[in-house]
Amino acid sequence: MKQRSKPSRPLRRGRAAVAGGIGLVLAIALAVQAASSAMTRTNPALATTISKSNGEAASRLVGALFTGRLAETKATAKAAASLQPLANQALASTPLSPQAIAVRAAGATDPAQKAAILDAARAINRRDPLLQGLVLEQSLARKDYPAVLSTLDSLLRVQPEQGSVLFPVLEQALESPQTVSEFARILDGTAPWHIDFVRGAVRKPELRANLAQVRLRTGLSDPGFDNQLMAVTAASGDLEVAGKLYRHVAGKPLPAARLGAIDWNSALPPFDWALATESGFHASPDPSGKRLEVLIRAGKGGRIAGRLMANPGVPFAVAVGPGVGPFAKAEDFQLVVRCPGNGSVLADARIGKIREETLVAVRPAPPGECAFLSLELMGRAWRGEGDARGELEQLRLVAR
């Protein structure tokens, strides 16, 4: 079996640098400039000869040397100190060389001079990773989050494969509520890294609240991300924000709190139906959308369908029609209604043997305590007693 190749040593060092918080410049430089520094180490004499006659070569050389020394010293100023003459030589023939400018800035002993160089360079070049790494380090020191995110956006548009190095920095920034507006401005879906980042961030509990606020302010759209964000936000108990996400993503109001039939729409759970999709345990609407096709293989069981619905605010019952069967026992199919806010069970009816429409009374719950109600259909088929399959008609809410 083919073994997965290990990351290069420079890339592994770069990741460690980010994880330890000891040098974003090191991480970025090593990740994207390992090849250049390798050339300098293998043939420094030739590289030096080239640099004397060619400004572009001198620029590459000074960047490669800086990268190599940065890996050893872990200090930008120390790595750049002895390279100032070579940086000046490169700038003499190539005045806008981003790598030479980066080394000049890194070696500046006066903080004001370093800041002035980087501020001017940022307006000239937003693509060179080494220069942008220094700009990023400066912006982080200033806690200038708009500049941090703009710099990372520029880097990742050019080097999207560096997400593994740079996403931890973005995630750290997203933990601060102060960055929500800037993330909403940056994450507009115009770069491939935007979707990659949010798909990873939504799996981190500490980021979900701010990520939800970002999504509410942007048109960034990805069905997998949107569904997961809505689901985890609702599961955390923040149903108000989850409802806002539904309205923003779906572009329509929440399903109305009214008596009548409930369709089997499953586009955006949990305010639409979340349907089981396992092999041998699944449910799906028929083409008309008025019936739910259910299959439960022998030995399978659990929640076959569930959704949140607004509390009608009046006494009601759920009308359940026959369809799935045969069931050997009444408890093999259940309808459960809960109040998510406090977990109380408002209805728990065994409906596995019904042969005609049955009304399941729901205990009243004040909307102030339970703005939403949870409806769950539970089913199982015992091993050795055959599969459960069939079609369920739409559930109906009726006054009582």
Keywords:
single chain; about 400 residues; alpha+beta; five-stranded antiparallel beta sheet; four-stranded antiparallel beta sheet; about 15% strand
Structure description:
This protein is α+β, with helices and mostly antiparallel strands and 400 residues long. 48% of the residues lie in helices and 17% in strands. It is built from 16 helices and 13 strands. The protein has helices spanning 9-20, 24-42, 44-53, 55-73, 76-81, 84-93, 98-107, 111-124, 129-142, 145-158, 163-174, 180-186, 192-201, 208-216, 223-235, 239-250, and strands spanning 260-262, 274-275, 277-278, 281-285, 291-296, 301-310, 316-320, 333-338, 345-350, 358-361, 372-380, 388-393, 395-399. The chain has a 5-stranded antiparallel sheet, with no helix packed on it. Helix 4 (55-73) packs across helix 7 (98-107). The protein is elongated and about 90 Å long. The relative contact order is 0.07.
Summarize the structure.
The protein is α+β, with helices and mostly antiparallel strands and 400 residues long.
Main beta sheet: strand number and arrangement? Answer: 5 strands, antiparallel
Q: What is the CA–CA distance across the termini? A: 65 Å
What would the principal axes of the Cα set say about the shape?
Answer: elongated
Strand order of the largest sheet: 2-6-11-8-9
Total strand segments: 13
* Binned strand content: 15-25%
Assign the structural class, choosing from mainly alpha, mainly beta, alpha/beta, alpha+beta, or little secondary structure.
Answer: alpha+beta
Mean pLDDT: 80
Question: What's the Cα radius of gyration?
Answer: 30 Å
Please, how many helices? Answer: 16
